[in-house]
Amino acid sequence: MDRSDPMYILQNASRIRYREAERARENRAEIVRALNQEQVTRRELFKWGLFTTVGTLAMVNGLSPFARSAFADIPTGAPRSPLFGAKKFTTELHRCQLQAPIPLRRKVANNGESIAKFPNELGELPGRRKSYHTQFSKNPDNAKFRNPLTGRGPIEGRPPGEIFAHQRWEEYFPEVGYLLSIGQCAGDTYMHESFPYQNSDSFWCYGSGRSAVGSMPPFLIKARYSEPMLTRVYNNMPVDRSQNAGFGRNETQLHFHNAHNGAESDGAANVHHFPGTFYDYRWSTTLARADKINTDASDRRASGPDGNGGLNLVPGDFREIQGSMWAHDHRFFFTAENVYKGNFGAINYYSGPDRGNEEMDDGVNLRLPSGTLLDWGNTDFDVNLVIWDCCYDASGQLFFDIFDTEGMLGDIPAVNGSYAPFFEVLPRKYRFRLLNASMSRFWKIGLADQQGRAVPVHFIANDGNLVVSPLQIPTLGPQGMGERFDIIVDFSQFRKGDRIYLVNQALHRDGRRMKEELSLKQAIRGDDKDPVVGAFMEFRIVNKVESVDVPGVFHRASDPDKSQIPPLLTEQIPIVAPVRTRHVEFKKSGGDSRGADGKCIPDCPEYATFPWTIRINGEDHHSMNANRISMLIPAPGEVEHWTYENGGGGWDHPIHLHFEEGITMGRNGMQLPDTERLARKDVWRLGEGGSVTFQVQFGEFGGSYVNHCHNTVHEDFAMLARIQLLTGVAGSPQTSITPTPNPTPDGVFFTDPEILPEGLPRGWSDEGVRTAQLQTTIASGDDDD
């Protein structure tokens, strides 16, 4: 395919071209169904000429969207999604679905450990330090601890024993709980009133409670420092893997991107769980450097709101407080498919400085736009905007093309699950938390008035981390998948009836990279070759809006705006000499995820090929294998300098580091924007052939984490590597290499991981590094209630 050609066929194409493109899409979907239902194998597809020898879709007309059309000397292209008469800005923005915290009661069990009791009327098992898989392993015949849906395996997906026990459980004991279900969508799920309802397995999304059906928009959890959480996720997806509307795997692990949690609750330690089971995540709200800085919790800036106008002080470095984060599926090899189906939500952290109350003046609170009706966490003027792109088949059902390993683009822009919505705002300051939840699309977002003039914004946070001082900029820079940009927009210069637009200025031709950054003037006109270019959300200035924090209360344009844009938001963390440096190169080359038996760890789809790899410190290229350790962090608190490099041209990668943020030091191959200069981040766009260097320091928790491209198609095929953190907490199993869990419907078994040559830090021997044995992992002690 000539990559200057569009991903989608043009609107003025002939009907016969449209039919040809739709027929090719239907043929690809039929192959997907056959593979899912094990009616055919990859070997048979090779034999029939439908796959190439390297496992990619054959470039034949009637199958590949990139094959030459039978009717024109250009690729067939993908068919455009039907809109069923829907117009932009005719459906209202839906706010993310706020989850209510459930108070937990602390009780001491017979073994002396604390357990977290849910209210009795919920009928929930209490939260425990060790998984209920531990009890199942002791007595598989006890139905209390067995999967109630299938009768096979344990009730909890978290692996058994000490390795996956919640680290520092008593210290960060959960005070509130959340109950979530991931499963089939409700029967009234749609992105616009004109669109058809989605079939139950088109979207797999979250609902509140044990047996809730999934629904859009995505969930929102408001958390605060000093209040650890226990989030119990029930897997209510179909037991039959083939019941997935053509894509998605009915197994999940929920990654909290990018909170400071133990590996057992990070959601990316190869611990996916199965239909009928739950998984207990203890999200600790630990402030980074709690073991090194402000250990006596005397700094009022390191704190969380107490709900009564005061602060609960916590140990740690206030310069590392986080705000805008999110959670999403991380089932290795199926992340793109599962996230695209709706398996994600937003999480906001609140702190003393970022309290979410624009009126309270206590010498710590920054008074950022939010509201005043609640003590903390007001969202009337603080709005999460989850942005992604998708596409539909001819019948209006969500469609995913699993055969494009370079990245998939949709032609439908969605915000909080609505197609190109409008949102009513007052003429005052608002904070917007912009999250790019796309699979492969970079966004470059600007604001324009009705005359097409730029509306400047104040940039206040990058990937949930406050920048030192607000930056007034005319338009945002490119935003990679998983990146979060927090901005303040002042609508006070406008009057009732005015319209302001969010405009996408990033032009794509395919999912490999952004093709061009358009001017605001160019982007507003749109581009037929990339339907997502142009205005995708409308703000309407009005005189009155109803509160979402306290429904029934109305805010008016005449109300005073009590919010501020303070000149200083935080303090700079200095760059210091590192203990060691590492170089991580992201390349396109033959991957080695499959073993000699053709299998992956964990299991991967039949159609999977692995063109994307990672090369560390000049060693061999590797693609994902959960049993291989690519980087070992030998001790907490050591400062390292890492360089991420894009090892080739023609594509771009947004690279995500789990668990810790890095301080961005410099770039090669592309200009370092002011919004990144010495800013803390967890996702970095590399640019074509570019690199970024940052300072990182690990601490507090240990275990298995990962490092990967957040173009989730690249991640699934399989640009992802395991990192092993060794903790300094005495007596913790994470002082040693942790074994690899291998989930099955009948329970988890463990294997001893392989440390790759690049895994050990340079100049560091493997003396004293031991691999924990299986009996250590499953030993549970006498901890039954």
Give start-end ranges of low-pLDDT stretches. Answer: 66-76, 770-785
For this entry, what is the oligomeric state of its chains? single chain
Radius of gyration: 25 Å
Please give the number of β-strands.
Answer: 45
Q: Which descriptor suits the 3D outline? A: globular
CATH superfamily name of the largest domain? Cupredoxins -  blue copper proteins
Short précis:
This protein is mainly beta and 785 residues long. The chain has seven helices and 45 strands.
Structure explained in plain terms:
- Helices cover 7% and strands 30% of the residues.
- With 785 residues, the protein is mainly β.
- It has seven helices and 45 strands.
- It has four domains: 1-78, no CATH class; 98-123 and 169-350, Immunoglobulin-like (Sandwich), CATH 2.60.40.420; 382-556, Immunoglobulin-like (Sandwich), CATH 2.60.40; 580-778, Cupredoxins -  blue copper proteins (Immunoglobulin-like, Sandwich).
- Mean pLDDT is 91; it is low at 66-76 and 770-785.
- It has a seven-stranded mixed β-sheet, with no helix packed on it. The chain has a seven-stranded mixed β-sheet with strand order 33-32-31-35-40-37-38, with no helix packed on it.
- InterPro entries: Cu-oxidase_C (IPR011706), Cu-oxidase_fam (IPR045087), Cupredoxin (IPR008972).
- GO terms for molecular function: copper ion binding; oxidoreductase activity.
- Residues 613-722 form the Plastocyanin-like domain.
- Pfam families: Cu-oxidase_2 (PF07731).
